[in-house]
Specification:
26% of the residues lie in helices and 25% in strands. It is of the alpha/beta class.
């Protein structure tokens, strides 16, 4: 099994956002990465963004993150250097970076479980240095990058690194959303809204968005939610049951990652329904099997595999899926600490996805 480290460097430096321990970040000069294996590519990042998972990392919820790790698993950039065994990319190509690294050959990859690749999975910004920097090393580049037209809109395309395939795969497909379904999405953050956008591809009859933040609920309505529920009064269960004539919903997607929201999902699901967990949970939750065992409930969990990225990319490039509407704020890399503050205070700042541009990036 290949073990990836970040010891190989060019001797040159770059700016990078570094995790320094729980609730501590720093923008530092770090060694610029170099090719380590023949399947590697070095990408000069032009555009990156911050994920909700990065906030969980910042809180100390993800134990695989070591002090000194460069964060970030989303990005668009330009290929700077190519390993000898890379066949699909060349210097100067514009590329989308997938959050999932996959070798394409192991038993998990052959089952399309790329997130569990024996030599990859979620590496970037986790067990190897990530994309919130001027440069990044991409292992298994032939299966981890997507070639883009030179005029592709970075801000729209970077939404395909993580949140759109996550919303589609972990929310919509795992929840088995079907035409005519009543769907509830708990959490109107970026991943919840990405779930909302992609759920509409499957023609549900209703999509009920649930959140504490009235601004995000307003955004959800503009994105296509048919009904919204403000859960700040603690009575979301009653509101959803009223909206569904006490039947509950056919599919509920948990897109927050805290015990209270997972519990809400269990209370509003209809018999025969599907619960799809998308949120990153840092604490244990209660699973009420004593209530659900006789209701034919199906629960799906899982990491995104990013197998849907090629289809989503076609939809974004053709204009069939408006991914850019998820962007609310824009920052330079030199302002990334401010970007984290804005994203961390989303309700106050009315923030969805914050885009970070490298100064001088073309």
């Amino acid at each position: 099994m290949q073990k990836f480290t970040d010891n190989e460097t060019t001797g040159m430096t770059m700016k990078a956002l570094v995790y320094k321990g729980a609730n501590k970040l720093a923008l530092e000069d770090r060694p610029r990465p170099a090719i380590k294996l023949a399947t590697d590519v070095i990408v000069r990042i032009t555009t990156t963004t911050i994920c909700g998972t990065d906030l969980h990392i910042l809180k100390g919820d993800v134990p695989t993150i070591i002090n000194g790790r460069i964060l970030g698993h989303e990005g668009v950039g330009i290929v700077e250097e190519v390993g000898h065994d890379v066949s699909s990319f060349h210097k100067g190509d514009k590329v989308l970076i997938s959050l999932i690294t996959s070798c394409g050959r192991c038993s998990f990859c052959k089952k399309a479980m790329y997130s569990h690749c024996s030599h990859g999975g979620w590496l970037l910004g986790n067990t190897i240095d990530g994309t919130q920097a001027e440069y990044v090393r991409i292992p298994f580049a032939d299966t981890g990058l997507y070639l883009l037209p030179p005029d592709a809109d970075d801000e729209a395309i970077v939404m395909l690194s993580c949140i759109l395939p996550t919303g589609l795969e972990c929310g919509v497909l795992n929840g088995q959303v079907s035409p005519g379904d009543i769907v509830a999405i708990v959490g109107a953050g970026p991943v919840g809204l990405a779930t909302l956008l992609t759920a509409q591809l499957y023609s549900p009859a209703e999509i009920i968005m649930i959140d504490l933040d009235e601004n995000r609920l307003k955004m959800a309505r503009s994105f296509g939610a048919t009904k919204t529920v403000n859960s700040s009064d603690g009575k979301a269960w009653e509101q959803v049951m009223s909206l569904t004539q006490n039947a509950g919903v056919d599919v509920v997607v948990e897109a927050v990652g805290i015990p209270a929201t997972f519990d809400l999902c269990q209370t509003i699901i209809a018999p025969g329904g599907h619960i799809a967990n998308v949120g990153v949970h840092g604490k244990s939750v209660e699973f009420h099997l004593e209530r659900l065992w006789a209701s034919n409930i199906k629960l799906a969990t899982g990491l995104v595999d990013a197998g849907t990225t090629p289809k989503l990319l076609k939809m974004v490039l053709s204009g069939k899926l408006d991914a850019k509407k998820l962007v609310s704020h824009r920052f330079k890399l030199s302002e990334i600490i401010k970007a984290y503050d804005t994203f961390s205070n989303a309700a106050k700042e009315h923030a969805l996805k914050v885009v970070i541009k490298n100064e001088g990036a073309v």
